[in-house]
Amino acid sequence: MDNFYEILRDGILLCRLVNDIKEGSVKKINETSLAFKCMENINAFLEAAKSLGVPPQETFQTVDLWERQNLNSVVICLQSLGRKAGNYGKPSIGPKEADKNVRNFTEEQLRAGQGVISLQYGSNKGANQSGINFGNTRHM
Question: Where's the Calponin-homology (CH) domain (predicted)?
Fold first, then answer.
């Protein structure tokens, strides 16, 4: 994790990554090692990642990377960005995102479903005590 942190902490590589996915996502990349410029790079990456479709719950706070507080959230953000890269003609990383599968039922179908007893309610043909002979003598 030390190497991971050292490579990403200035935000330059992150900004280049986003620009490779979609050209011009980050307008200006600060190449200096000043703390506030590095944090600007990280923040620019986060804004670009959100604009590419990374959900807010899968991003991280700037201090998570800069102060090395939560590097796992950085990995989650990079994985999410890797899934979104396929939308921009780049190879995606990780599993394919699930597509929405909306189902529309008519009122008649909904009413018909109310009369059906689901197996979730249980069955009276399940396990019972028939065939148990605990305490009986053994018949041969």
Answer: 1-86
Q: Please tell me the pTM assigned to this model.
A: 0.69
Please check the confidence at residue 82 and state whether its pLDDT lies above 80. yes
Q: Which of 16, 11, 4, 3 is nearest to 63 (CA)?
A: 11
Number of CB atoms found within 10 A of residue 12's CB: 21
Distance CA 27, CA 4 (A): 24
pLDDT in tens, 8-37: 989 999 999 999 999 989 999 989 889 999
Distance CA 102, CA 118 (A): 22
Report the CATH fold assignment for 1-88: Actin-binding Protein, T-fimbrin; domain 1 (1.10.418)
